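Hi V.,

Quick status before I head out on leave. The structure for the redesign project is tokenized and pasted below; the design run finished overnight.
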């Protein structure tokens, strides 16, 4: 049936009645041959592109090549691309590449045929370029990158090469092109794209800043991922070029942004900014930068991030003397700071000398340097120089005296000129002498009072009532008991046991006091007291053995250590009254029932016992 319609040239009906692809190819072939015979080559190319089995791709291509119909061949290739499946990657790539070359050939032929093709009024050329770029956009994923770029380069289509490189994200090629053309803004727009590597920023920074410094710096300031240290080569290249006096230094602007806004701490960045400030005629910006403490507030960190030695060398080279004075002072080289400041401004030297506050000798030395300079530099008459020098003494707030600056005057200066200053100095010395005398008298009186107090302490005593009781055992202090007759380490007075009496009136037997303090104090102190008592007991035993041996007429060697240990024991147990001193205060925090008496306290606990025989009666209230 489809053949009947085909013979009648009713192609739509014939296609509708076809049962397989081979039959449809027959219909398309007849249509293509008819269009080809009628020299409708573009229409024929569309039909040929639909044929899959009857004719091969090569045969159809040769048909158009043999008659030099490049446009029809290109149309055939484009339609063929539309009919190919995605799995036929190799064929798609080859056909796309061939179509690319045909586009380029067509563009070149237009340029050769018409010199005015590049004009914007030439619609055929412009539409072809637009169509070609659309083709590149559609086929960017199937075209071989290297082959396509080589084709574009060989045909001299730089704009299309840049366009395709941008499609393939080969931004380095794009940037090279824009920089060669001097189009810095377009290059910076490419760099602002989110998928552009930051390394390209650093690579093209030297060229871009030389092309358009303002736009480049503005772009840097809006790009937060940049590391200013890697931009230093570009900034140094820009800074090496001469600039007009009133021209805004873009590198300084960017470095100030990094230091103040981004709080960059890189020493290289700070050193570069300092070097640019040093080269400016106005020194104020440099001084403000040196005085600014960028690291202040960071615990353990430096106050500044530039290298002070480098800054000093640079400022000396550029003859920025005020800056040098500041750096010397910052490095605690005050003598060098004052010496250099005297060459610039004596007032500056005085301010530097006043900065030294913790070293009086150094401060005086600095002021002497200033005084010598002031006296030697005065060019008036001698009497005027002397008056100015004496007036200078008043500015030192008494740090310098007239005798300190006298060596700086000539040997034959009249003393009349110094009369007032010398008299004032003598009066000051007289006041100091009187003050020292008063201090000596006060010290003598204090020493006498101390000696009297010591003598009074040696004769101090207290009266004990015969019924006075021991604060611990409650026995009378002055009674003789079997347990207290002899206490080792103490010398008993008559039949009485040794005892302690405190200024507050409390009295204790020695053994009772030792036992009480040992029980109430901490473990370490208790062990210390027991150890002293043990040593004292051993020394007493040795002393007794020696005396029984018949050597009592000679002085005992062990008496002195015994007295020493007894003194230590007295300090340990009798430094203050146990009932009125720190020991009693510490007992406030102790529990009423110590842990060792816990079982005893539990035995006193009242527990209810309910027996079956007992009945509980409720009482009505």
């Amino acid at each position: 049936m489809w053949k009947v319609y085909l013979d009648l040239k009713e192609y739509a009906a014939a296609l509708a009645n076809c049962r397989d692809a081979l039959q449809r190819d027959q219909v398309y072939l007849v249509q293509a041959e008819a269009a080809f015979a009628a020299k409708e080559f573009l229409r024929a190319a569309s039909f040929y592109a639909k044929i899959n089995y009857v004719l091969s791709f090569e045969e159809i291509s040769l048909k158009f090549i043999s008659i030099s119909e490049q446009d029809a061949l290109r149309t055939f290739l484009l339609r063929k691309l539309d009919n190919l499946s995605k799995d036929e990657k190799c064929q798609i790539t080859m056909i796309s590449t061939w179509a690319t070359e045909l586009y380029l050939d067509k563009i070149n032929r237009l340029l050769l045929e018409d010199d005015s093709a590049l004009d914007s009024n030439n619609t055929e050329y412009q539409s072809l370029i637009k169509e070609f770029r659309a083709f590149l956009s559609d086929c960017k994923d199937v075209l071989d990158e290297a082959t396509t770029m080589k084709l574009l380069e060989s045909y001299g289509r730089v704009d299309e090469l840049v366009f395709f490189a941008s499609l393939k994200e080969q931004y380095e090629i794009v940037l090279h092109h824009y920089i060669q053309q001097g189009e810095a803004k377009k290059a910076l727009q490419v760099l602002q794209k989110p998928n552009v590597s930051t390394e390209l920023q650093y690579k093209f920074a030297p060229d871009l800043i030389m092309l358009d410094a303002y736009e480049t710096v503005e772009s840097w300031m809006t790009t937060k991922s940049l590391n200013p240290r890697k931009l230093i080569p570009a900034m140094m290249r820009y800074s090496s070029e001469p600039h007009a006096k009133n021209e805004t230094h873009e590198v300084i602007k960017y470095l100030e942004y990094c230091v103040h806004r981004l709080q960059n701490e890189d020493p290289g960045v700070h050193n570069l900014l300092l070097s640019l400030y040093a080269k400016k005629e106005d020194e104020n910006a440099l001084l403000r930068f040196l005085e600014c403490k960028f690291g202040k507030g960071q615990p353990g960190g430096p106050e500044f991030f530039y290298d002070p030695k480098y800054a000093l060398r640079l400022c000396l080279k550029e003859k920025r003397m005020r800056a040098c004075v500041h750096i010397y002072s910052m490095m605690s080289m005050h003598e060098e700071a004052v010496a250099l400041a005297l060459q610039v401004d004596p007032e500056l030297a005085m301010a530097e000398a006043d900065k030294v506050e913790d070293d009086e000798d150094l401060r005086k030395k600095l002021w002497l340097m200033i005084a010598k300079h002031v006296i030697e530099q005065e060019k008036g008459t001698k009497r005027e120089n002397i008056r100015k020098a004496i007036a200078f003494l008043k500015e030192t707030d008494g740090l310098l005296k007239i005798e300190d600056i006298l060596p700086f005057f000539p040997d034959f200066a009249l003393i009349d000129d110094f009369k007032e200053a010398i008299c004032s100095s003598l009066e000051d010395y007289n006041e100091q002498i009187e003050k020292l005398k008063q201090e000596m008298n006060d010290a003598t009186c204090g020493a006498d009072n101390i000696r009297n107090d010591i003598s009074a302490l040696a004769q101090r005593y207290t009266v004990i009532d015969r019924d006075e009781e021991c604060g611990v055992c409650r026995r009378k202090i002055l009674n003789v008991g079997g347990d207290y007759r002899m206490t080792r380490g103490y010398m008993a007075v008559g039949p009485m046991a040794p005892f302690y009496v405190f200024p507050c009136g409390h009295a204790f037997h020695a053994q009772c006091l030792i036992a009480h303090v040992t029980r109430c104090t901490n473990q370490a102190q208790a062990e210390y007291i027991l150890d002293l008592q043990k040593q004292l007991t051993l020394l007493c035993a040795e002393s007794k053995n020696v005396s029984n041996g018949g050597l009592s007429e000679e002085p005992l060697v062990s008496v002195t250590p015994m007295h020493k240990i007894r003194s230590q024991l007295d300090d340990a147990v009798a430094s203050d009254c146990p009932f009125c001193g720190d020991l009693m205060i510490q007992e406030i925090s102790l529990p009423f029932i110590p842990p060792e008496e816990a079982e005893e306290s539990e035995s006193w606990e009242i527990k209810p016992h309910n027996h079956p025989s007992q009945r509980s009666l409720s009482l009505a209230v």
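Above is the designed sequence. The beta strands are 499-501, 507-509.

G. will cover questions while I'm gone.

Best,
W.
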